[in-house]
């Protein structure tokens, strides 16, 4: 008997799909993207997968870097703090994908953008989510 094929979800797409409406719902309708947009908005959030491991035969635990840009250092700190709180509420079914838990692996840190000198804060999380059987 052959083993089933398990396909893991695109963690960046699932996270962006969750954060965009969640931020808008709390009065912060900022762009949430996987690449820095051109032209660059004053305020936005970028989600990028930087690693992670398969947690079980049917689940993934990707590590994501979350960066928040704003006009001021305080604005960037507030935006990343809001994203941090929203990620804590992410477990559940998101875009059809079961999300079991979100674990912070790197708390918010000041990380000014070296290319634009724009204020930026960063946060790192691991998100345990279920794959699907083909």
TrEMBL record:
This is DUF3168 domain-containing protein. It comes from Streptomyces qinzhouensis.
């Amino acid at each position: 008997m052959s083993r089933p094929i398990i396909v893991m979800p695109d963690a960046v797409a699932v996270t962006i799909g969750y954060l965009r409406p969640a931020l808008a719902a709390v009065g912060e309708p900022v762009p949430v993207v996987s690449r820095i947009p051109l032209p660059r908005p004053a305020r936005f959030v970028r989600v990028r997968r930087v690693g992670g491991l398969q947690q079980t035969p049917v689940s993934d635990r990707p590590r994501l870097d979350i960066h928040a840009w704003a006009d001021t250092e305080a604005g960037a700190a507030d935006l990343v703090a809001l994203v941090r709180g929203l990620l804590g509420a992410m477990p559940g079914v998101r875009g059809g994908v079961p999300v079991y838990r979100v674990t912070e692996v790197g708390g918010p840190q000041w990380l000014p953008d070296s290319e634009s000198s724009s204020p930026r804060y960063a946060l790192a999380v691991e998100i345990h989510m279920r794959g699907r059987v083909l």
